[in-house]
Backbone:
């Protein structure tokens, strides 16, 4: 029977209260939201916080709001909420692509976007999604509020810029005209971690060439985004030839490891193939966005 | 710590250690052993219960987290002697073999039909995709849920008829 080590539990009444509790209880206190990363680690005694600060009651952190140039998502927004949001699907189809294959429908009822990003698992899908959308993360702490780009938010596997005394409150996705995005993952079965996945966003110029692109890989041993692969597309027509080149460069930039989910050559093949697929789909969606004047 | 929750329609107040998981709270504190305890890793789904109407894996929820919330277990499906259409469907279409996954499957089915009374086969398969039947009886489970969707008239609307269990 897997039972966490003993801890004390307290419910936060507000964000300010949660921060005060983190300060009061110090380094051995942790914020818990959906709990589907932290509780399994506590059950295995890989994590042994002395205090759990439950933020599930903070309805003010559960929102999806469209603003002029961005979509703001509260940190406590559940995966299911994101998947069921037509607004999210219209503006950022990559989020729905990913959410459909994150864990399983029951787990998605509990897990949150803020928790996923803070867990920073190398095989976690939303980190890649936020990377390629050039999202920023709002972190609050004793010193006030700061907004951190995903590039700076990532500190490596299981590490983020969110310090012990701080918490993530919001994720901001910039809305860019004439843009499209897509995500595809290969997994052994529903609910398993990715064997490999790729995500891309593409912005088209008026003349149909690629004005901007960003490519991210999941579970492929790469920190951050595949810069060279994305750069190879800029200024070019989004042709199959260009996607093949970008796929090859993305595979070159990956550093997969041989494990129970597959050998290195297979994973590198996936990096290549999945990158081509998401580029095709993201470009098609960018074309639709350019015609309708919406989306990203 | 003291927690107050509505379990199968009745308010229950209990003192529990913060580290007690919901599945063990239901089984050991309330005696509601219909909720099964399986993989312990939020993979198998036999421990699924409804939390405020939504299926959750109770091995990965703290009992403390349901304070002030509503929990519905398999014991709360039937309305007195009248089975929920989902339960009736599992009988009609032989939806269980060993029965271990059945409580979780039925609760997920109930939540699905509450939200989408006419799911197609793909939607049913997606809804139960986080739950494992080691008898591999998925075809009959899907048919059982389809039976329930086709026979909603006998639905136990709020599942409040059951008591919370032997020790309550």
Residues:
């Amino acid at each position: 029977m897997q039972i966490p080590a003993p801890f004390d539990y307290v419910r936060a009444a507000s964000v300010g209260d949660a921060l005060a509790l983190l300060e009061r209880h110090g380094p051995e206190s942790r914020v818990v939201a959906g709990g589907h990363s932290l509780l399994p680690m506590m059950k295995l005694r890989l994590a042994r916080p002395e205090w759990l600060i439950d933020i599930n009651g903070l309805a003010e952190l559960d929102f999806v709001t469209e603003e002029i140039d961005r979509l703001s998502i509260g940190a406590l927004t559940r995966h299911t909420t994101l998947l069921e949001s037509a607004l999210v699907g219209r503006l950022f189809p990559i989020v729905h692509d990913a959410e459909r294959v994150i864990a399983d429908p029951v787990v998605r009822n509990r897990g949150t976007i803020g928790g996923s990003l803070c867990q920073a698992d190398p095989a976690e899908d939303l980190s890649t999604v936020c990377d390629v959308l050039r999202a920023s993360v709002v972190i609050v702490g004793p010193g006030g509020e700061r907004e951190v780009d995903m590039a700076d938010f990532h500190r490596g596997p299981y590490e983020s810029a969110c310090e012990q005394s701080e918490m993530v409150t919001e994720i901001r996705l910039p809305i860019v005209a004439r843009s499209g995005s897509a995500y595809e993952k290969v997994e052994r079965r529903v609910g398993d971690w990715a064997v490999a996945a790729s995500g891309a966003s593409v912005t088209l110029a008026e003349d149909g060439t690629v004005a901007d692109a960003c490519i991210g890989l999941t579970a492929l041993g790469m920190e951050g985004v595949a810069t060279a692969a994305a750069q190879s597309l800029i200024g070019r027509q989004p042709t199959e030839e260009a996607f093949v080149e970008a796929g090859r460069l993305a595979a070159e930039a990956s550093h997969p490891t041989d494990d129970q989910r597959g050998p290195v050559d297979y994973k590198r093949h996936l990096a290549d193939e999945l990158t081509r697929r998401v580029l095709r789909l993201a470009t098609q969606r960018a074309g639709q966005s350019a015609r309708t004047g919406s989306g990203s | 710590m003291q927690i107050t929750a509505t379990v199968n329609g009745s308010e229950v107040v209990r003192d529990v250690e913060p580290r007690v998981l919901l599945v063990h709270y239901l089984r050991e504190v309330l005696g509601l052993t219909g909720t099964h305890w399986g993989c312990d890793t939020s993979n198998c789904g036999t421990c699924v219960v409804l939390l405020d109407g939504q299926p959750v894996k109770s091995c990965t929820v703290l009992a403390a987290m349901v304070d002030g919330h509503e929990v519905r277990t398999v014991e709360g499906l039937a309305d007195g002697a009248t089975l929920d259409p989902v339960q009736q469907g599992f009988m009609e279409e032989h939806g269980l073999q060993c029965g271990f996954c059945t409580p979780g499957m039925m609760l997920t089915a109930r939540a699905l039909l509450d939200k989408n009374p006419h799911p197609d086969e793909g939607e049913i398969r997606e809804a139960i995709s986080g739950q494992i039947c080691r008898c591999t009886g998925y075809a009959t489970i899907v048919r059982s849920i389809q039976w329930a969707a086709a026979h909603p008239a006998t639905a136990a609307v709020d599942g409040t008829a059951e008591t919370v269990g032997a020790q309550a």
Notes: Chain A touches chain B at residues 1-9, 11, 35-36, 39-40, 42-43, 52, 54, 56, 80, 103-107, 109-110, 190-191 (CB under 8 Å).
